[in-house]
C-alpha cells in the first residue's frame, strides 16, 4: 500500500500521531529478484481466480 500525503511543512507529515508507523522498504537486489522469480516458478505461476 502506498500513502501519499501533502503538507506545507514536511515536519507536519512526521508529527507524532500522524501515522502509526513509518518504515522504508528498499528495492530488491538482483539476487533477491532472482529468488522471487524462483519462488513463482516453483509454485507454477498460479493465476488468481477472476
Count of folded domains: 1
Shape: elongated
Give the tally of β-strands.
Answer: 0
Output the helix-strand order: HH
- Report how far apart the termini are: 21 Å
* Overall pLDDT confidence: 78
Gyration radius from CA atoms, angstroms: 18 Å
Q: Helical segment tally?
A: 2
Low-confidence stretches: none
| Structure class | mainly alpha
Largest sheet: none
| Percent in strands | under 5%
Helix content: 25-40%
Q: What does this protein look like?
A:
By secondary structure, the chain is mainly alpha-helical. The chain has helices at 10-13, 30-42. The protein contains 2 helices and no strands. Helices cover 34% and strands 0% of the residues. The protein has one domain (1-50). The protein starts with 9 loop residues before the first helix and ends in an 8-residue tail after the last helix. The model has no long low-confidence stretch (mean pLDDT 78).
Give the structure's gist in a few sentences.
With 50 residues, this protein is an all-alpha fold. Helix content is 34%, strand content 0%. The chain has one domain.
Topology:
Blueprint: H1 10-13, H2 30-42
Characteristic key phrases:
mainly alpha, 2 helices, single chain, 50 residues
Amino acid at each position: 500500500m502506498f500513502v501519499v500525503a501533502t503538507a506545507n511543512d514536511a515536519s507536519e507529515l512526521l508529527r507524532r500521531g500522524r501515522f502509526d508507523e513509518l518504515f522504508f522498504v528498499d528495492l530488491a537486489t538482483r539476487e533477491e529478484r532472482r529468488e522471487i522469480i524462483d519462488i513463482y516458478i516453483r509454485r507454477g505461476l498460479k493465476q488468481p481466480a477472476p
